[in-house]
Structure formats: structure tokens, C-alpha cells
């Protein structure tokens, strides 16, 4: 029997914490977690962004980070990268402190795009992920052949063969996103962190990129953690959800976390989760609806 999702109070009220199975795969000691977040808290400018966050992510899992604007979803990714210090708690990435295993972590930040003034081809952008930190010009020989082979592999992996040799500024948003995902995968990372990669894409491209990320996660055994503006394009692929809210955090399978009971407890007010005839999820009953989110600039 599956337990209810874990609700970690974020207001110091001392409300009970219900047990959690953290999803449909073994976690904790039963499986090697490539990311382990334990009772983590972040404080920015004297303001507690979130605390009491607990989540473990295993190889091949696809986990979404959801929540209203300004709740610190992107901050969680930065903490995993070692770019944001914790106020308390701990994070382990591949058994080490965050930042010590960056070569094994691929990262795609928010709102990366190229306009027509960028005179680089898609393959050039991918190449930067392979040797962008090297000094000087690449020399011919075995290393150059290996680099070309890896670029070809990445182009095939993201299905970008039709346009990878075109100028990246001429590509559509979905095509650019595939190129950037390929760049993030250049060094065969074991973890892929994606910060709203579906933002500004039309619905067909959202669906296509969501399917691509899921396929990469499964076929390459890459752990994916994605911050999402709208859960619907990725809902069918998710193993678990980390929902950050004003009353704490909830971790568990999507159908349990994104439920009326779970979100009502998190927000401290009645929340209703509805399913449309085409299977999309809509949340009503709070001012900043999380699914889909009202996207704004903020401390996320």
C-alpha cells in the first residue's frame, strides 16, 4: 500500500508530518540516491525561502519541482549545484558536497535563447559544452575525432540532425532548446537540472521536449530534476513531484501530491484539483494557481 505524501510544515506550527514512500521506486538505503536533500533550508535577505525539504532522486528518475511564484524553485536547483548555501540541513550530490561533482551534473538555466545576431551553428553551441573551457584552438588528431563523434552522438540523441548545422539564431524555440539540452549532456552527466525548459514554447514543442527529456532520462539512466511552470506537458512522465508552497513542502507521486487534500493542507485553505476531459490538471481555490502557474519574475 502506498503511503500519503510527506507534508513538511513550513510555518513552525508543529503540525503532524505524514509518512511518505517518495514515489514508485526504492529510495534511501534501498537505492543509491544520486541527489539526497535532507531537512534543507535556505534564507535570503533574512527571509526564509523554504525549509524542511527532504527528497532523494535516483538514477533514471524524472522529478518535477512545482510551486507558486517566488517560493524558491530555482533556488533549490542552485542549492543542488552548490551555488546557493543552505541555512541548515544538507545536500549530497553523487555522495559528495554540492559543487564537487559539477562535471557529472548538466544544467540548463532559465530563458537561454539566441537571436539572429548570433553567428554560431547548433553544432558550435554543442561543442562549447565539450571543450568550452579549453584554451586555444583544438588540435587535429584523436581528440578532435572523439569530439566530432561525441557531437554527432548528441545531435542524434536530441533528434536535431535536420538543423544542427544551421545558425542557431535562425532556429525555432523548440529547436534551440534541443541544442541546449545536447550541450548540457556533453560530458555524459548522471544528473540533469532543467529550469523551466518549456517556458515560451508552444504546446506541440512543450510536448515534444517533455517526451525527449523523459526518453533521455530512461535510456541514459540520467536523473532529471525539472522546474516547471505548467505540470501538464510532463505529468505523464513524472516519477515524483516536489511541491514547494507557503505552508511547507510535499514530496511524492504526482497523483498524491497534486491532490485536493494534499494542497489544501499545504496552503491552509481549501484547494480543488480538477481534471479536464483531455486529462489536463487545473488547480483552483488559491490566489496563485500552481497548475498551470501564473508566470512572473520573482525570487524563484
TrEMBL record:
Residues 35-271 form the ABC transporter domain. It comes from Actinocatenispora comari. Keywords: ATP-binding, Nucleotide-binding, Transport. GO terms for molecular function: ATP binding; ATP hydrolysis activity. This is ABC transporter ATP-binding protein. Transmembrane segments: none annotated. PANTHER family: IRON TRANSPORT SYSTEM ATP-BINDING PROTEIN HI_0361-RELATED, METAL TRANSPORT SYSTEM ATP-BINDING PROTEIN TM_0124-RELATED. SMART domains: AAA (SM00382). CDD domains: ABC_Metallic_Cations. SUPFAM superfamilies: P-loop containing nucleoside triphosphate hydrolases. Residues 1-28 are annotated as: Disordered.
Amino acid at each position: 500500500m502506498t503511503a500519503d505524501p510527506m507534508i513538511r510544515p513550513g510555518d513552525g506550527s508543529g503540525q503532524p508530518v505524514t509518512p511518505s514512500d517518495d514515489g514508485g521506486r526504492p529510495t534511501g538505503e534501498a537505492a543509491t540516491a544520486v541527489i539526497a536533500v535532507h531537512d534543507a533550508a535556505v534564507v535570503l535577505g533574512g527571509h526564509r525561502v523554504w525549509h524542511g525539504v527532504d527528497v532523494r532522486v535516483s538514477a533514471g528518475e524524472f522529478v518535477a519541482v512545482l510551486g507558486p511564484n517566488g517560493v524558491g524553485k530555482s533556488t533549490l536547483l542552485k542549492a543542488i549545484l552548490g551555488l546557493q548555501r543552505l541555512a541548515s540541513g544538507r545536500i549530497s550530490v553523487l555522495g559528495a558536497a554540492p559543487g564537487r561533482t559539477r562535471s557529472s551534473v548538466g544544467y540548463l538555466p532559465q530563458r537561454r535563447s539566441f537571436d539572429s545576431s548570433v553567428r554560431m551553428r547548433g553544432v558550435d553551441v554543442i561543442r562549447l559544452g565539450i571543450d568550452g573551457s579549453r584554451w586555444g584552438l583544438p588540435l587535429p588528431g584523436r581528440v578532435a575525432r572523439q569530439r566530432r563523434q561525441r557531437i554527432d552522438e548528441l545531435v542524434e540523441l536530441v533528434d536535431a540532425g535536420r538543423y544542427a548545422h544551421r545558425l542557431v539564431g535562425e532556429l525555432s524555440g523548440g529547436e534551440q532548446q534541443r541544442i541546449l539540452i545536447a550541450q548540457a549532456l556533453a560530458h555524459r552527466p548522471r544528473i540533469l537540472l532543467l529550469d523551466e525548459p518549456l517556458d515560451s514554447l508552444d504546446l506541440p514543442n512543450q510536448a515534444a521536449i517533455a517526451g525527449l527529456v523523459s526518453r533521455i532520462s530512461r535510456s541514459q539512466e540520467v536523473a532529471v530534476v525539472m522546474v516547471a511552470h505548467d505540470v501538464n506537458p510532463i505529468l505523464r512522465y513524472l516519477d515524483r513531484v516536489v511541491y514547494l508552497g507557503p505552508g511547507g513542502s510535499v514530496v511524492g507521486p504526482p497523483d498524491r501530491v497534486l491532490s485536493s487534500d494534499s494542497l489544501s493542507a499545504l496552503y491552509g485553505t481549501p484547494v480543488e484539483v480538477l481534471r479536464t476531459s483531455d486529462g489536463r490538471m487545473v488547480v483552483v481555490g488559491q490566489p496563485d494557481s500552481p497548475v498551470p502557474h501564473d508566470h512572473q519574475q520573482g525570487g524563484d
